[in-house]
Design goal:
The protein is mostly helical. It is 75% helix and 0% strand. The chain folds into two domains: 272 residues, no CATH class; 84 residues, no CATH class.
Amino acid sequence: MGKVSLKDYVLYFLKLGTVGFGGPIALVGRMQKDLVEERGWITPETYKEGLTLSQLSPGPLAAQLAMYLGWSQGGVLGATLVGLAFVLLSFLMVVGFAILYVHYGGLPWIQKIFYGIGAVVISIIIQGATKLIRKNIGKDWLLIGLWAISAAVTILTESEKLSVFLVSGLISVLIKAPPSFKAKTAMFSLIPVWLLAGIHGPGDSSLLKDIGLFFAKSGVSVFGSGLAIVPFLYGGVVQQFHWLDERQFLDAVAVAMITPGPVVITVGFIGYLVSGFLGAVVAAAGTFLPCYLFVVLLAPQFHRYGQNPRVKAFVDGVTASAVGAITGAAFILGKRAIVDIPTLALLAVGCFVLFRVKKVPEPVLILLGGAAGYVLKSF
């Protein structure tokens, strides 16, 4: 494996954040396909370590994994530049949508487009989840069992449980690499001390301060998929602070789904609606800063002990559970996107194209799905 420059890493994640559709599940699968399988820039072990740390730490999954991979290449500078590159253009896109939204009284056409995009996005998510299952679980019956339990818990509770990840890791250790009574295990150093983090806006703006604190809290209160942040945001933005009504909030989520990059970038749209461009910047910074700090502070320790057999077993168990949670999240999201025969047909077409044709770029598939949705809802 040849040395890859940090510039190449940054450019790759800038592109992924610009054209990567499908939300966290699809983005995570895309990173594995591009960086591990096709380009060979990172090892499967490094990817698995990053995926596990991202699941164990609070914050959006895809952004954290990108930061970890950047750290593996260039330390703190790598994590910083990759993180900024990954979210920058998608952030600017949602701010652009927010400007149109504010000045033109909403986006009535967006629901028509999302009607078709939602179904196609599910097909991308299914493909991403399938690749993660194939590469990280395979035919290992223990990992299959942990995957199934995690998927079932996620589907039944409609949330991702950190406790399930940790228990899965411990079960894998006890079965695959049981410690002796005298053994000193390093795996407990992998469990971070959960700390609340916040970001304060300028002192002369109480609203910006509230925005920063709330979104920082959201960044340390959700785990795994960026989709998990949606119900948390709803409780604060709509129910607690009444910054937006339900229609505006749903539009914000829809905008995040039709733009590339991490789904959690919807915080930029919400922040702009609440307090203009500064509100968007503060909301995005408050959400992403905590997960960035977790990566740069925990990654060195995590990487140091990554080759320990018991740590490897722990990583295997947590990864299987994480993939199960992602699979469950795909099922939950699919129930909400596939609402009738036309959306089911769009899902089937999307899966056929991705699994059989394999030559249609995802952005093109997304655009075709949006066009089909607009036509179907219009007539």
